[in-house]
Amino acid sequence: MSDSVTYAGIDIGGTSIKYGLVDSQGKILFKKQRPTVVDKGAEPLIHLVTNIAEGLMYHAAEEDHDVRWLGVGTPGAVDARSGTVIGSAPNIDGWQGMAIGSVLGERLNMPVHVDNDVNAMALAESRFGAGVGYDSIVCVAVGTGVGGGIVLNGKLWRGANHTAGEIGHIVIDPNGPECRCGNRGCVEAFCSSAAIIARVRKKLGGKLTPAFENVLRGNVANLNIRKLFEAAKKGDKTAIEVIDETAEYLASGLASVVNLFNPEIVIIGGGVADAGSSFVTAVSAGIRRRANSSATEKLRVARATLGNSAGFVGAGILGETR
Ligand SMILES: [Zn+2]
């Protein structure tokens, strides 16, 4: 394969679709995003994605890029051979069963590779991001949900039915809060942004502390993950407590992953990790306290470096690694 090959990728998210072109060194040549349509069902969304794909291919042709396939990352478990969504995607109604690979493949008349969005992110981080130089990588994305991806020797570990890496649904408290998967006490039930915000609200009990009063401009409706980290930076006790607690919950789940896989590196990304570096430091300390010392001796815990481009970059290189 020549060095001049260009990767094209699309990352379908619950709020936006990010897409772009990347060269073989990981340099982003073109990048754009559009709001997702999720409230109108699966059909309008697949039309939008098709539209974006055609536009992206047109742009690539115009600029004389040698694009040989399209890669797509999407929420939900994906049968990577057929490019069909086989698991439910909680944020997109009716998305389960969507044959993204064949719909786009027919329309574009080129190979289309589809995988889970966090798998794509893990692949991107392993190839161009925090995971460069490591052979055993566990990647976790903490945001609206908690997802995971495992890359061993440059290849995604997908498991028997394409669902490997569901770190978010490791049970850390059998009697814990209900999770959207139907189980109780999963990592996600504690560490999703909604769960974090709910704990802050509960702790505040309707009364804003001076720091929250300041960052929320007096209105608790303005509360989000970024504001939480802002309050923590101002030294707010409640904010710091909730962030530390969340790091501890995530570390509990990841300690099991580290004991099981003994990876060289755990990479943490997503909206919660992006909001403050203190979070990743706390998770790292928590893992080291809980996992076997032999399993953490050579372990690195690092923040993801590709930010919200990781999804489409990873999608773009999907065709190369299967
Ligand atoms: Zn769950």
**Content-based structural category:** alpha/beta
At the third CATH level, what is the topology name of the largest domain?
A: Nucleotidyltransferase, domain 5
- The span between the termini is 15 Å
CATH architecture of the largest domain: 2-Layer Sandwich
Record field, number of beta strands? 12
If you compute it from the alpha carbons, what radius of gyration comes out, rounded to the nearest whole angstrom? 20 Å
Estimate percent helicity: 40-55%
- Give the neighbour order of strands across the main sheet: 3-2-1-4-7
* Largest sheet entry: 5 strands, mixed
If helices are DSSP runs of H or I spanning 4 or more residues, what is the number of helices?
Answer: 13
Beta fraction: 15-25%
Q: What would you call the shape?
A: globular
